[in-house]
Amino acid sequence: MRFLHTSDWHLGRSFHRVNLLAAQRRFIDHLVATVRERHVDAVLVAGDVYDRAVPPLAAVELFDDALHRLADLGVPTVMISGNHDSARRLGVGAGLIERAGIHLRTDPAGCATPVVLADDHGDVAFYGLPYLEPALVREALGADGTGHTAVLRAAMARVRADLATRPPGTRSVVLAHAFVTGGAPSDSERDITVGGVASVPAEVFDGVDYTALGHLHGCQAITERVRYSGSPLAYSFSEARHRKSMWLVDLGPGGAVTAERVDCPVPRPLARIRGRIEDLLADPGLARHEDAWVEATLTDPARPHEPMPRLTRRFPHLLSLVFDPERGPEDPLASYAQRLRGRTDRQIAEDFVAHVRGGRGPDEAERAVLGAALDAVRAAETESATAESPATRSPAAESPAIGSPATGSAGAGAVEAAPSSREVAR
């Protein structure tokens, strides 16, 4: 059986306020053409179909067009909700849509109810595990812990129990939306850390012929049978070196896996350049980036006069300007953002406790309280997103959740053409 593994469409997302709808439509065209030309038997979408719980109308229309075109080809599609999606909204009408061959899996309670397709070698059972927020699904799944590993183990136990009832030789595919240990993240994925631990071991999916993962935006193979397709478009400058693609997978008799990368259309290349402004304006080696979307980091000790218009004259698609002045490590003006770079919310909170208490950090009990508080905020945000309506959303909430986190490209100084405060927080 041949299937196409994709994920993280993030329909409705922008790139530093550049509207990507045309590029996303081009990707859908490419997806449909690949399905038709490569004789694909099933399409898998491993979550984050939309960029936010209440997507803009244009994104909903593009999603509707994609489903109609796939249904017209007669090719089954299995799709799960991700942490950016509203599971309830995405799952509306799932029972009716299923009659057209579009199988939406957004309810954790249905994780052990597969979509069963057949080829010349027998049945293939496709199990859809939507994004599982531990605080919301732990009790329903009977998980023996509070983190991602515990709830995914509980969901996979149900999958294996169902698979054991299937005819001998039935092959299995799982769709999941999670951060699996060994995966390389980028700046554009929303943090799903729970209890200080974001990742789950790949062994959670042992015994399955293929696991189609979503959440991380770089296409990568954790193992031969556990893979991320990545996002079809770049959504942050940290993805400048990504090769955007989908996995075209052939699942042979006995569960043999052969996978090929199918490249996605690139609307415009990305470039990150760094140096003093005069060097950036004069360096002939940077000519290749003049048509790219550019993030420029200026290292001048003092902020140059009108850097944005000066740089834009050479790099007309400059989208992000970061200031990281050359300073010695002992300089008291060294950026607070630099000191936070690469640290999790929990580590930052624990460091703050140590700072205000003269160097004495939190003890184990206090760490547990901090962890529980962070988890509760994240769970509440996830739960409220499913019930949030456009009328109750603030203007800031309507801003596209793109941009780098505070510990990322915001770097060491103010950023021109920077994301909103909510984007930075994400």
TrEMBL record:
Residues 267-355 form the Nuclease SbcCD subunit D C-terminal domain. Residues 1-217 form the Calcineurin-like phosphoesterase domain. InterPro entries: Calcineurin-like_PHP, DNA_Repair-Maintenance_Comp, Metallo-depent_PP-like, Mre11_N, SbcD, SbcD_C. Residues 379-426 are annotated as: Disordered. Residues 382-414 have a biased composition (Low complexity). Signal peptide: none annotated. One of its GO terms (biological process) is DNA replication. Pfam families: Metallophos (PF00149), SbcD_C (PF12320). Keywords: DNA recombination, DNA replication, Endonuclease, Exonuclease, Hydrolase, Nuclease. GO terms for molecular function: 3'-5' exonuclease activity; endonuclease activity. Belongs to the SbcD family. Heterodimer of SbcC and SbcD. SbcCD cleaves DNA hairpin structures. These structures can inhibit DNA replication and are intermediates in certain DNA recombination reactions. The complex acts as a 3'->5' double strand exonuclease that can open hairpins. It also has a 5' single-strand endonuclease activity. This is Nuclease SbcCD subunit D. It comes from Streptomyces sparsogenes DSM 40356. The lineage of its organism: Bacteria, Bacillati, Actinomycetota, Actinomycetes, Kitasatosporales. The gene is sbcD.
